[in-house]
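agent> call fold_tool(seq_1)
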Amino acid sequence: MLLYAETLPSVLSPLDPRPVELVNANGRADFVLVCEHAGIAVPGRLKNLGLPAAEILGHIAYDIGAEGVARCLADRLDAPLFLQRYSRLVIDCNRPFSAPDCVPEVSDGTVVPGNLQLAEYHRRQRYAEIHEPFHREVALFLDRRATAGSPAVLVAVHSFTPRLAGGPERPWQLGVLSNRDRSFAERFLGSFQERNPTTICAHNEPYVVDDQGDYTIPVHGEARGLLHLLLEIRNDLIGDPEGQRRWASLIADGLIDAREKKHVND
């Protein structure tokens, strides 16, 4: 963990939101949901990172629709959900500190003026005030589950844009990501495809999970030996409440089925 120098001025003011919001803390399901790119908040002292307001509402700033899907999932599954309130342009809470895009200077071709040539201590400051508190609360929650002997299945909820600037169209509607332990991801994907044969979905598309490009799955899932997966839903499908509810319902059914199959196999 990074040490925070108390002599540095805080990046967050009393008017800024807390980095983490815990929804349905007493949820009884085995599932623990995390949405690291839910928020669009930018600390007031960072002055929108020098970006026009439209960019802060676009896919480079947060995962469009992911929070809505995650909230619907939490309700349908009766699962706790951790939401991260700050834009990933401020600090990406699904990246280790060493990743260049933990504080991105450019995102999908858009230059982020407030991140250019950022001093090391300013990067550490954002990490210490936003990234660390978020993941500390997730870790403490999972610790309590482990101490109580309660199972936990970690599910990270994300969305992706149908096409990056200058890139090809992405045909997938749902990506199911994992790395070292593919067991639960593949079980869920098989169940989901059985239930939704016309949906275009795949393992490790349009991204992959690894130690440099991800934080939640390697640290909270793999290192703890928990069942886990990361979901990527194409954001044009979940841009409104109706789409969010529909996809949450489809995903919840697949998760429950995959969990039940795990119990049967055990």
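agent> call fold_tool(seq_2)
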Amino acid sequence: MALLPVSELEASIAVIRPALRDLRFWAGLLGLGLVLGVAGPFGTLDNLPLLPRLAYWTTMILITGPVGFLLSHTTRRRLQSAGLPRLPASFLSGTLMGLPIAALVLGLNALFLDPGDVALGEGELALAIVFLSATVSPVITLIFFSPPDLPPPAAPTHARADSATPRLLRRIPADLHGPLVALTAIDHYTEVVTTKGRHQILLRFSDAVAESAPTLGLRIHRSHWVALDQIATARRDGLRAIVTLTDGSERPVSRTHVLALEQAGYLPPR
């Protein structure tokens, strides 16, 4: 996979910041490090005394845990934006990110351990780390990024006929107020894109779509909504389609929403 753009890493940091501030996250990492320190896997039980072993494993987990969390989450977002469901995307991103994490672990081992302190060879250790990363990533996703239990939405309030400003704009900074371009679901956040920029808000995607009125738009994917007047072009991609927006970005159209795009006149019927 291509290197992750800095902008995507920054966006991921903004999304995962609440999790990084959650004591459960750090308590879980510390607890895992202590358990591994006591258990002494990969030959460290026989080759390292208790205190150095505890220090090694807690340090290793506290370093690699947040790094892997950030990289895996960023990769999962890209996979989800391409249409892959959340849990398969988590498993695949965990597998992919196990490779740089394995490289980091091997580098730290070379700095702080003597040869033979870890019983596994480098290749075997790397495979074990990839397996653990692929296993842990979906668990972390379920714990920290499952949609919250929310009460049923209240009956929608109809906007005044003479109002042209979507209520959704009140939730983003004033310097980003402008015509809506698109909405994208990212976990239980929604990214609001206007002609002035973009901003993520903690709001259920369906509620954000409701608050986009009176802007005329179309839900083209379970994670994407676009304003009709911001669609520049649309093209077919097999059974699916892709729309290009006026800001130059592209959004996937799922098979179930292609018909709506045809009916809106943006794609010729088959």
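agent> summarizing second result for user.
The chain has two domains: 6-145, 167-263. Strands lie at 180-186, 189-194, 197-201, 217-221, 224-227, 231-237, 240-245, 250-253.
agent> awaiting next instruction.
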